[in-house]
Amino acid sequence: MIKNVLTIAGSDPSGGAGIQADLKAFAANGVYGMAALTALTAQNTQGVTGVELVPPKFVKAQIDAVFADVQVDAVKIGMIATAEIALAVAEALFDHRNIPIILDPVMIAKGGAPLLQEDAMETLRTALVPSAMVLTPNLPEAARLLQQPEAEDRDTMASQARALTELGPDVVLVKGGHLESDESPDVLWDGAALHWFEGARTATKNTHGTGCTLSSTITAQLAKGLKPSAAVEEAKRYVSGAIAAADQQSVGQGHGPIHHFYDLWKDRT
Q1: pLDDT band, very low/low/confident/very high, at 109 (cuts 50, 70, 90)
Q2: Which of 7, 45, 210, 213 is catalytic?
Q3: Is-catalytic flag, 210?
Q4: Of 65, 68, 106, 145, which sits 20 to 30 A from 248 (CA to CA)?
């Protein structure tokens, strides 16, 4: 039976990130995707020019409507934007914490635009992080959640992954894409052991939506029954391929999207 997966996130009209990236990743990874919007953004490959927030009550209403009708096998949470929306999402998911919940704490767009209000940080930390099976921050996000300096080496990444589990998630994946190196390692702490996932950097500017796609792919694989470490391994493989194939597309003049369907469109260039 095909699994059903819900993303709770913001919209990217240019199709590279947010719910659009999530739904593409769900489809490419063999699950049925659904979406509850938290925000509408005006953005393209060159940056974000505007954000319109969905009222918190309506965010909750979308989530409630899905759960009232569909068996949901996993949930991915992306852009939350405000403390009020974070509380609405936490309330909507309170009775559904028995399924995998993956939290990608989106704070800043690739172009630098803030996507999480400053006063929402504490609410995100206390209302949503503890409910997550898997938390997937990049280095700046991990630092902000812990109120520590940003990690610049592997030892600090590992230390911060361990520290973040103390906030409540079962598993933490700290993504090392911001490291100043030729490699892009990620580290997973599952409460018992560290798991490193290595990755060489691909020479391309078309990496828009990488974080959204990684977390949504992990969500899809957890819904299909993989354990967190195996889900991350499969997600890294898929995203690495999508980045490597990104230049087959011609989307925009800035940071273009990765190629979500590279493995399905092998006969197209």
Answers
A1: low
A2: 210
A3: yes
A4: 106
